[in-house]
Amino acid sequence: PLIHEIEYQGLVWADKIIAVSEATKQIIIDRYKIPADKIDVAYNGFEAPHDNYTFDRSDYSYLVSMKNKGYTIVSTVGRFTLQKGLFHLMHAAARAIKIHPKMLFLFAGDGEQKEDLMRLSADLGISRNVIFTGFVRGKQLRDVYSISDIFVMSSVSEPFGLTALEAAHHGNALVITKQSGVGEVLNSIVRYDFWDEDKLAGALVNIAESPALVTTLRDGIKREYGRISWDDVAEKCVQVYDEVNKHKRNRF
Q1: Tell me, what's the pLDDT at 252?
Q2: φ, ψ for residue 42 (rounded to 5)?
Q3: Taking the CA atoms of the chain, what radius of gyration do you get in angstroms?
Q4: Are 183 and 194 within 8 A, CB to CB?
Q5: How many CA atoms lie within 13 A of 124 on its CB side?
Q6: Residue 42 and residue 241: Cα distance in Å, rounded?
Q7: Model's pTM, two decimal places?
Q8: What is the pLDDT of residues 230-244, one digit of tens each?
């Protein structure tokens, strides 16, 4: 309640609000009763890194060997919290593995749900197909993207989700919940409701068993994230600032 009140006061007193997605804008409208015309949407941008990064196969030699045996690597990255919908992902993983056994799931990150997720993978009988990397960042994070074939954003609620664009840059096919804002700016993805474990499992199996689908998703997403620019975001923000300044000048 205290956090809600602080956020409410900030939103009420603001001359204008910039949300990072239409989903976030709708949450502000629904939960805080803020008029829609007070909120503008400026999606996050993406800039591909220009450095000398190369994937270090030695750090993931086991996964490299399994890929050579025909396994598909599915990854997710983030905090292990309720918001990320990881229990639904784990249940979907069990269903997908039952249909297509040659799948490995890479859970990269840490959080209060880690032990429960590890226990759940054992209870579901898929612990051999699930790997927990612990917290990763920098080169370690990019290595996770590089070894993966499919990236899943299973969030119950995600204002935007830059990790999906990072994964796409490293050649991943994307499976994203409809509750994640990044899905609003991408078309070459598979979207599902966070609770729909059957649809998620089906999507993972379809991608794993269809090289043509993987190529279509990868090629399409590469064109789409390439059009997302921080320059465009900055231009949108400047337009909002100018609108607020003009309104204030007219009032006084």
Answers
A1: 57
A2: -130, 105
A3: 20
A4: no
A5: 23
A6: 12
A7: 0.91
A8: 999 999 999 999 999
